[in-house]
Amino acid sequence: MNKRKYMAINLILFAFLYLSVSFNKEYIRPIYGSTPFWGIVSGSYSNFIAAYIISLFPIAAILAKGINLNKGRLIVYSIAILVFVILTIEELKPFFGASEVYDIHDIIANGLGSLFAIFTFEIFISRKLRLKE
């Protein structure tokens, strides 16, 4: 995978992040925002998907540069933890202006998004290793 391909993959991920958050904010949240369960899900979706997508960004570069599995795992795990910490700090003490109200559900969504990114990496790597055998 060359540099252009992994940049394209990350651009697609960023576009998906932007479009899905916008769609949720404009259409889903106004409809379901007042219901108990779906209100929480639609309200925390932005945090989940941001943590998930941003934590996925290094995967394409790791694959493109042929970084070994242990080093790649360290990079992905470290980025996922860093993303969780930054988004949680943003939730507790807003500095980018993205968070307006403290919400424990958003912090949980940050953690789940980062964990899902790690799971996605592990699943992808295990499938890639199986194909090599």
Question: Topology of this structure?
Answer:
Layout: H1 3-32, H2 36-65, H3 69-92, H4 104-132
Helix pairs in contact: 1-2, 2-3, 2-4, 3-4
Task: Provide structural commentary.
With 133 residues, the chain is mainly alpha-helical. It has one domain. 85% of the residues lie in helices and 0% in strands. It is built from four helices and no strands. Helix 2 runs parallel beside helix 4 and helix 3 packs antiparallel against helix 4. The two termini are 20 Å apart. The model has no long low-confidence stretch (mean pLDDT 87).
Q: Care to give the gist of this entry?
A:
The chain has 133 residues and is mainly α. It is built from 4 helices and no strands. The chain has helices spanning 3-32, 36-65, 69-92, 104-132.
Principal-axes shape call: elongated
Uncertain spans: none
Return Rg in Å.
Answer: 16 Å
Question: Helical element count?
Answer: 4
How many domains is the backbone divided into? Answer: 1
Strand content: under 5%
The SSE string, one letter per element, is HHHH
Q: What is the count of β-strands?
A: 0
For the terminal residues, how far apart are their CA atoms? 20 Å
Task: State the helicity in percent bands.
Answer: over 70%
Query: Could you state the oligomeric state of the chains shown?
Result: single chain
**Largest sheet entry:** none
Q: Which class of secondary structure composition applies to the elements?
A: mainly alpha
What is the mean pLDDT? Answer: 87
